[in-house]
Amino acid sequence: MAYPGPVRDEPLAVELHNTLYASGGELVDGLRDRASSDAWLAALGRRLPIGGSPGGPKPAELIALRQAVRAAFRALLKSQVPPRTSIETINRFSKRAPRSPMAQWRPNELPQAGWDFGGASRGDVVLSALAADAIDLLAGPDGAILRACGAPGCVLVFVKNHPRREWCSGACGNRARQARHYRRTRKRPADG
């Protein structure tokens, strides 16, 4: 199954937030079941850390973390302090896979950096990485450039990595421009 929702080149926590998206005027949960959750994780592919014993995160765990991230992001977008319960939830998920940097050398290859997750499960590794990314975004410089998409009906957020960027995607930008054009032309008196 291919993930039908949006996956863009945003920070992992933003990608998690955006698993609740609008399609055809309806809100869609991209993590609603194991198949859709696995499809989303597969769509993120190499952006997720490798490691951990078998067993991916449960959809309910992803949804719980997403709820905390969405609440924290909503507060950040309003220049408010995120709810204590959201921060506690994010911190709790971050702790599930303690990580230590690890150097790896293989014969005839360049050295690589990796992570030792102390025997954590794959699910814990993924959930911890998503939560750590949320912490980095909330407490780091990119938190100041987190934006809600301004297109009609869009519920996604993005990191404004370009001064002129106002929408989560080109498609949303087109919808916003079309809506603006429609409003302008509707206000003109009819020629007669």
Secondary-structure blueprint:
Layout: H1 12-17, E1 20-23, E2 26-29, H2 34-44, H3 59-77, H4 84-94, E3 100-104, E4 112-116, H5 122-139, E5 146-148, E6 157-159, H6 170-187
Antiparallel strand pairs: 1-2, 3-4, 5-6
Brief summary of the model shown:
The protein is α+β, with helices and mostly antiparallel strands. It contains six helices and six strands, in the order αββαααββαββα. The chain has helices spanning 12-17, 34-44, 59-77, 84-94, 122-139, 170-187, and strands at residues 20-23, 26-29, 100-104, 112-116, 146-148, 157-159.
State the end-to-end CA separation.
Answer: 55 Å
- Helix count equals 6
- Kindly name the structural category: alpha+beta
User: How much of the polypeptide forms β-strand, as a percent range?
Assistant: 5-15%
Instruction: Give the spatial strand order of the biggest sheet.
Output: 1-2
Taking pLDDT < 50 over at least 5 consecutive residues as the criterion, the unreliable ranges are none
Number of strands: 6
SSE pattern: HEEHHHEEHEEH
- Measured as a percent range, the helix fraction is 40-55%
Mean pLDDT, nearest integer?
Answer: 89
| Biggest sheet descriptor | 2 strands, antiparallel
**Assembly status:** single chain
Give the overall shape, derived from the CA principal axes. Answer: elongated
Integer-rounded radius of gyration: 20 Å
Provide an overview of this structure.
With 192 residues, the protein is α+β, with helices and mostly antiparallel strands. It contains six helices and six strands. The protein has helices at 12-17, 34-44, 59-77, 84-94, 122-139, 170-187, and strands at residues 20-23, 26-29, 100-104, 112-116, 146-148, 157-159. The strands form three sheets. A two-stranded antiparallel ribbon has the order 1-2. It has a two-stranded antiparallel sheet with strand order 3-4. Strands 5-6 form a two-stranded antiparallel ribbon. The chain is elongated, with a radius of gyration of 20 Å. The mean pLDDT is 89.
